[in-house]
Amino acid sequence: VTRANQIWRLPLHADGSVTKASIFCHLHGGPSGPDGLALDAEGCLLVAHAGFGTAWRLSPRAEPLARIASCAGWSTTNLAFGGPEGRDLFITESETGSILRATLETPGQPLFSHAG
């Protein structure tokens, strides 16, 4: 939830149903909150923190493991993994209209449509 600076989680059951939403983490700083999300192969969540000029890598327990600071502007809005090994994290930055790239050690998880 961008305005509340929160990331919510919903337990997904084997039958596809979900139950009560809860707060996964609460981010601080900047005039806006979390926006685009991506998952890596280790199950960590990557979060574009709009208004803070940052992409965070959070553990499955919401521990901050890494901060990737924007070199362009403060409005990091979305994330996508790509590149030949899936280790390039592309970050959109809407203040300057830039697409940034950071090469990470851990590749991204394949998208559902690409998982075979």
TrEMBL record:
GO molecular function annotation: metal ion binding
Domain of life: Bacteria
Cofactor: how bound: Binds 1 divalent metal cation per subunit.
Name of the protein this chain belongs to: Sugar lactone lactonase YvrE
All residue ranges annotated as the SMP-30/Gluconolactonase/LRE-like region domain in the record: 2-93
Binding residues annotated for a divalent metal cation, in chain numbering: D35
Active site: D35
Keyword terms: Metal-binding, Zinc
Cofactor needs: Zn(2+)
Keyword Ribonucleoprotein found: no
Pfam families (alphabetical): SGL
